[in-house]
Specification:
Order of helices and strands: HHEEHHHEEEEHEHE
Helix content: 25-40%
Shape: globular
Number of strands: 8
Largest sheet: 2 strands, antiparallel
Number of helices: 7
Radius of gyration: 17 Å
Strand content: 15-25%
């Protein structure tokens, strides 16, 4: 959703796809125009071959370092994964290098994290300000079974961060999203005074 919104706001799509292909995930990437509630939006499609293979943090960091990415993007993406790894290690009570990235380490999540960092760089964003995070509610199916929302890793990642729960009883902030925003955002709160030069809409899944 975030990559789609940033592309919709003007991040160069061919540059995004070319750089993300250099990660070597084997995923097929494309941007599709869609509508949500009558509003035009961009959906970032990541198509991967189903696999049960897990990745560890050192492997993910090596993929990022070897990719054709600007140095700032590599630093930011690596910092996001490091923070995510620390949260997962704490939840599962294992050393960080032993953390198995299931949903998080899958190709689509690697692309989501690196893609968000890259799109922000392409747009020239120097400071990121976030609203409080809507975590959602209910339960979510994971590799570890049915878990409450927020999932344990999300809960760990958003400590000391303004959060709330409103809307459908579904997961609205994933560990991946929480890791990106809590690593990169300089501040949380209301929209600061600004001149809007661009806006973008990213389409996520639809809820029945």
């Amino acid at each position: 959703m975030l990559v789609g919104a940033l592309a919709d706001a003007g991040a160069d799509r061919p540059s995004l796809i070319s750089a993300l292909d250099s990660l070597g995930t084997g995923a097929t990437l494309r941007f599709d125009p869609v509508k949500r509630c009558g509003i035009g939006a961009t959906k970032f499609q990541v198509e991967v071959v189903e696999t049960r293979k897990h990745r560890h943090l050192p492997h993910v960091l090596k993929m990022i370092e070897a990719a054709s990415l600007p140095e700032r993007v590599k630093r930011n993406a690596s910092a996001v994964f490091q923070r995510l790894g620390e949260a997962e290690a704490g939840v599962h009570q294992v050393p960080i290098e032993k953390v198995h990235f299931h949903e998080v380490g899958a190709a689509d999540s690697i692309i989501d994290i690196v893609g968000a960092c890259l799109a922000l760089d392409l747009l020239g964003v120097d400071t990121l300000v976030s609203s409080p995070l809507n975590l959602g509610s209910g339960t979510v199916k994971t590799e570890h079974g049915l878990l409450p929302v927020p999932a344990p890793a999300t809960s760990a990642l958003v400590r000391e961060t303004p959060v709330y729960a409103r809307g459908p009883a579904v997961e609205l902030t994933t560990p991946t999203g929480a890791a990106v925003v809590t690593t990169l955002a300089a501040n949380f709160g209301s929209m600061p005074p600004m001149r809007i030069s661009a806006s973008g809409y990213g389409a996520g899944p639809t809820f029945g």
